[in-house]
From TrEMBL:
It comes from Arcella intermedia. One of its GO terms (molecular function) is nucleotide binding. The keyword Transferase applies. Belongs to the tRNA nucleotidyltransferase/poly(A) polymerase family. One of its GO terms (biological process) is tRNA 3'-terminal CCA addition. This is Poly A polymerase head domain-containing protein.
Length: 436
């Protein structure tokens, strides 16, 4: 029995890892699955050591080269599989078969084998241990061959570099990654679901900024975010460079874990809004082609369209000698109310875009602008998005409002209260009746 892959690499690096892949011989994975199921049934309810298990059949079309048993035991997740080139019921495995398995893996540093019985690390490619020592990412075979076996490895390489920023790639991998034709062709064979899963892992990993910058460096953003029907680049070289600069300046403050995907992708997409103010692709395309969930899609559209609105409010503030009229305050307030807590993200995007365009002078009066928003209680302890109207929908209905009139009057109340912060409920009632 051998432990293979990331756990062994991390052991050599001196890093604790929960990523355990176990290679076994002498029994097929499907037989092991049934034996495990029988064992669990016989033990329940006396044992909770095994917390979950699942089974996936080999599927070459989806680049799954092994039957795989997923097992969660004592809060540790494990993948159990047979060697790639050996019959699953074979009780004898030679060095040649192990070498063949190692060469079929993605990178030499992930092709190390830990023999459980002896406690020895086997380097069957002959380069894995030295590559770990030199912090070098290398494919066991020629990059084109290795990536052809499973093209998703192209993105896993990027994710690896984001996780281990002190590693560098070989010149051979670099040459391949800069060949848009070859990598674009290979990635076209991968389902959008698998690509999106890799992107999510990258964006929720320890160094998403590094990962997205590599996407730009290798022009993968243009390949991944293209239409199904044609490979048409959305970013030109200047816009790609701007995306890279924006990503490098992100702070990730005020970003919820479930917002990370939308946050980093919005930053990547920001340069695409400079020409028309909107994104050059639809919400439908983001959902159906790129497999993003509805909340992520809505956030991307909202944040990418809102930074320019905030920029225009800042320009109005500058034009008015840093004094906004009450009507302008109300407009900003309704804008912030729509954004809610995510206004902080839009504020960051706007500040970065201004600085990219105009340098430090583009933000000369930024702090006074934010302070004025606080002075009008639009942000702070009781921000505008928590404000409630004096009269709710039921009460407005009793006043004779119907249908869309009710929603409109609810919004008008908020706008009126921003302009008249000292007004009483009776004052609001008189205003409502007057504007009925």
């Amino acid at each position: 029995m051998y432990i293979v892959g990331g756990w062994v690499r991390d052991k050599v690096l001196g890093i604790h890892s929960h990523d355990i892949d176990i290679m076994i011989t002498g029994i097929s994975i499907i037989s092991l699955y049934h034996k495990l199921a029988d064992y669990i049934k016989s033990q329940k309810p006396h044992s909770n050591a095994i917390q979950g298990y699942n089974f996936w059949l080999k599927n070459p079309e989806k680049c799954k080269s092994n039957d795989t048993l997923m097992l969660k035991m004592h809060n540790i997740e494990m993948q159990i599989l047979n060697p790639r080139s050996v019959p699953s019921d074979s009780s004898i495995i030679g060095v040649e078969q192990l070498v063949e398995d190692a060469k079929g893996r993605d990178f030499t540093v992930n092709a190390l084998f830990y023999e459980v019985k002896s406690g020895i690390v086997l380097d069957l490619t002959g380069k894995g241990l030295s590559d770990v020592s030199q912090r070098l990412l290398r494919t066991p075979l020629e990059p084109m061959v290795t990536f052809s076996h499973d093209p998703i490895r192209i993105l896993r390489g990027v994710r690896f570099l984001a996780k281990f920023p002190d590693f560098r790639i070989t010149e051979e991998i670099k040459d391949f990654m800069l060949n848009d034709t070859e990598k674009g062709k290979l990635l076209s064979y991968v389902s959008r679901e698998r690509i999106h899963m890799e992107l999510q892992s990258l964006l929720n990993g320890p160094s998403p900024k590094v990962g997205v910058k590599y996407l730009c460096t290798f022009n993968l953003h243009n390949i991944l975010f293209s239409s199904k029907t044609e490979l048409k680049y959305l970013w030109n070289a200047q816009e790609t460079n701007l995306s890279r600069n924006i990503i490098s300046k992100l702070t990730q403050k005020s970003v919820l874990p479930e917002e990370r995907e939308a946050y980093y992708l919005s930053a990547l997409f920001l340069p695409l809004t400079l020409k028309s103010g909107t994104l050059p692709f639809s919400k439908f395309q983001m959902r159906e082609e790129w497999r993003m969930d509805t909340k992520t899609v809505n956030n991307i559209e909202l944040w990418c369209s809102s930074w320019k609105k905030m920029d225009s409010f800042y320009e109005q503030f500058l034009s008015a000698n840093q004094e906004m009229s009450l009507q302008q305050v109300a407009s900003v307030g309704m804008f912030l109310r729509e954004l809610g807590p995510s206004w902080e993200i839009v504020k960051e995007f706007c500040a970065i875009m201004r600085k990219e365009k105009e340098g430090d002078s583009g933000l000369d009066k930024w702090e006074p602008f934010i302070q004025q928003l606080q002075a009008h209680n639009l942000i702070g302890v009781n921000p505008i998005w928590t404000m409630k109207p004096y009269y709710n929908g039921g009460e407005l209905k009793a006043f004779g409002f119907v249908g869309k009139q009710i929603q409109k009057m609810l919004e008008m109340q908020i706008e009126w209260l921003i302009i008249h912060p000292q007004a009483s409920k009776e004052d609001c009632y008189q205003w409502i009746i007057k504007n009925k």
